[in-house]
Amino acid sequence: MGKKNDNVELAKRFYSVMYRIRRFEEEVFEYYKRGLMPGLAHLYLGQEAVAAGACAALQEDDYIGSTHRGHGHLVARGADLNRMMAEILGKETGYSKGKGGSMHIMAMDKGILGANGIVGGGIPIAVGAAYSAKYRKTSQVTIAFFGDSATNEGTFHESINIAAAWDLPVIFVIENNLYGISTDIRKVTKEHQLSKRAIGYGIPGVTVDGNDVFAVYEECEKAVKRARGGEGPTLIECTTYRWQGHHVGDPGEYRSADEVASWRAVEPIGKLEKHGILSEAEVAEIKAKIEEEIRVACKFAEDSPYPSEAEAYTDVFV
């Protein structure tokens, strides 16, 4: 009986996080289409289970390294939606005072080392945080999120090599959504199961259904326990799919309609609903609560002022 109740509470938590991510991203997309958002955003729509499952395995004082597609990671880690939305709209009340925008939100109070506009750029930062934890003899671990194409970057190989050599407390999470911008990862790698790259570094590697939040959570929980126990890193490949193009301005026409439809049929939120753990009433209650949170965040961002001209040269390091 206790286990069933635990599953219900965990399902509520997962559903809340995933729906919060989805609604946040949908509103970001609307702001872009209305011309209210400076720059671009790389939406996390369709990948919600990865962030929700992975971050649920962490403690409050742990760290995450993020990517250009980082909104979902921040939401899952508990970042302030008001400040996130304000940052995306370039307002002074944002996490980076409106100067960073979508790809450069960081929230150190949540252990978020920053979204990163450089492919693979967040991986060595995450490894650095893991080294810091080991040096300071704390029990903290770090999750490094990155996409499939980042596994072809030198930073991936250099980082995973040193993390393995020094048994650093870091979990490498590949969000394999099959495409790096418009390039199909299957056309630029000989071995399509990216978790097998762990073999060369002598660490565990596993591939999991990245649209199944429980599966992601279970594998990340094992990897976090292993890292916290001093046994070093794990490479986890989460197979998933982004609904939109590479960014909000990309129509994604390099993908077939059949491929997109087949992946949307197994998307994370619907998959959790099909588990049957949550009742319709519980789902409705969660959605209503989050709709209000999103409404408040949007109003906060819209009502917030833009940075003054006097701020142009503060927080800038040259």
Briefly summarize what is shown.
By secondary structure, the chain is an alpha/beta fold. 43% of the residues lie in helices and 10% in strands. Helix 7 (213-228) links the parallel strand 6 and strand 7 (234-239).
For this entry, give a set of tags:
7 strands, alpha/beta, 318 residues, five-stranded parallel sheet, globular, single chain
Structure write-up:
The chain is 43% helix and 10% strand. With 318 residues, the chain is an alpha/beta fold. The strands form two sheets. The protein has a five-stranded parallel β-sheet, with helices on both faces. Strand 2, helix 6 and strand 3 form a beta-alpha-beta unit. The longest helix has 32 residues, at 2-33. It is globular. The mean pLDDT is 95.
For the terminal residues, how far apart are their CA atoms?
60 Å
The order of strands across the largest sheet is: 1-2-3-7-6
| Average of pLDDT | 95
Number of strands: 7
Sketch the major β-sheet.
5 strands, parallel
Describe how the helices and strands are arranged:
Elements lengths: L1 H32 L14 H8 L7 E3 L5 H7 L3 H8 L33 H15 L5 E6 L6 H12 L4 E7 L2 E2 L2 E2 L20 E5 L3 H16 L5 E6 L17 H8 L3 H7 L5 H24 L15
Parallel strand pairs: 1-2, 2-3, 3-7, 6-7
Antiparallel strand pairs: 4-5
